[in-house]
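Protocol step 4 of 5: obtain the predicted structure for the target chain.
Materials: sequence only (see below). No template structures provided, no constraints applied. The aim of this step is simply to have a reference model before the mutagenesis design in step 5. Sequence pasted as it appears in the construct record:
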Amino acid sequence: MSKILKSASILFIATIISKIVGFLRDLVIGYVYGIGVISDSYLMALNIITVAFISLLCVAIQSTYMPIYTSIEEKSGKEKALKFTSNVINIIFIISLIVSILGWIFTEPLVKLFATGFEGERLKLTIQLTRIILFSVGLVCITYVLKAYLEIHDYFLITGIMPLPYNISIIISVLLSRVLGVEILAYGTVFAFFIQMIFLIPFCCKKGFRYKLNIDLFDKNIKKMALAIGPVLIGASAYQINSLVDKNLSSFLVTGSLSALNYAYKLNMFVTGLFVASITAVIYPVFSKLGSKKDLRKLKITFCKSINSVILIIMPISIGAFILSKPIVKVLFERGAFDESATIITAQVLSCYAIGMVAAGMRDVAVRVFYSLEDTKIPMKNSILCVISNILLSLILIRTMKVSGLALGSSISAIIAICFLLFNLRKKIGKFNAMSILMTLFKTFLASCVMAIIVLKIFAKISLISEFLGLIVSVSMGAIVYSIIVLILKVDSTDYIIDIIKSKIAK
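Step 4 output (structure tokens):
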């Protein structure tokens, strides 16, 4: 467990640094372009590339590459495994190039599919930017193969700070675009993805990677990977489709709705990316090992500890984001073209996203248990359920709540998803300590509510002087209050989190 804690701590610290720079990137975009035509067009173009190509392919490639590489290395040696890696990279590059060319040809119908409500200048600019960013698909896919290679060899620090060169490049391109034109945003994005890939190569070489120019489409391991990609691709697609649905529907609303949704979503994903991803990235290999050994007893224990840790960390953040959404958005984004009206809309969306934070974190842990047991059917069914529920809820809620309804629909879908996964997990592995999970939910919610009361009182007084200072002081005091209460209530996995903190301090 100490190795897991150490790796999680390293990844956690690295992710904090990356997320801070990522927020700085969003601040710069918000400052320069606010919520308007240019920001809507750029973010939609980036979203199209991310949803339609990058995210799905990267998740599928990374999830299938890692176990196959490990198996080859154990059975046939590192040389064979490295040859397989080069083969994967080369095939991905060729396929990605073909996809990019086809995407360039059919950009207009592709954009209209994703941004149905875009017309006039917004539509024209989105098509223009999408055509350029399309050529980054191959770069990102190769980057994630290299990332997987490093994580196989326990190099979590580098993969954690991987977004740094990307975000810095985006910031520079945004600033340059004010002088050189909006197209620089797209060219800068492609360059940013390229720099991110180049950043990983020296560290891969340090870990023994040697590139070989070989292409073998009929290699048995390539066939095995191709067959495995399908179910994972379908399973991962749900979350991207949900994002697509939300952003597509937002395109029918007033100008700026998409941007507001995006900024709030980024804040929401900051929590998941920072805390949940640090746990799941490290715990997934453990799940896989226990799953392959059929050690269900230890798997159940590890699962409960992991999911309780997620609840323990995310619950107070969820409540905090809900009650302080407006000052959070104001302090982070309200400057330049990002005015008070943009703050109000974005804050409302953030509050709705906050409702589903805990469920989304639990879902990410539960899905990996199924993958570790080589069960891709349940995650696939869950994905279909998520898509259907999100579409229905979004269509209903958008009528009265506008863009906030899209965020609330996503949150409710996440709650439905985790209920479905836990029900099916119990059927698959038998009874696990579900009472421990329920008690953790109850105790952390109670502690978070007490924390919220104190936070609001402190913020109300100090914000009269400075909202920034009010946030810092009230959140700090809230964290102390929450920590004391969960210790008094003896919340499960508190000791687990304490061990993580100790390992961070020791390091």
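Step 4 remarks: The radius of gyration is 22 Å. The chain has a mean pLDDT of 84.
Proceed to step 5.
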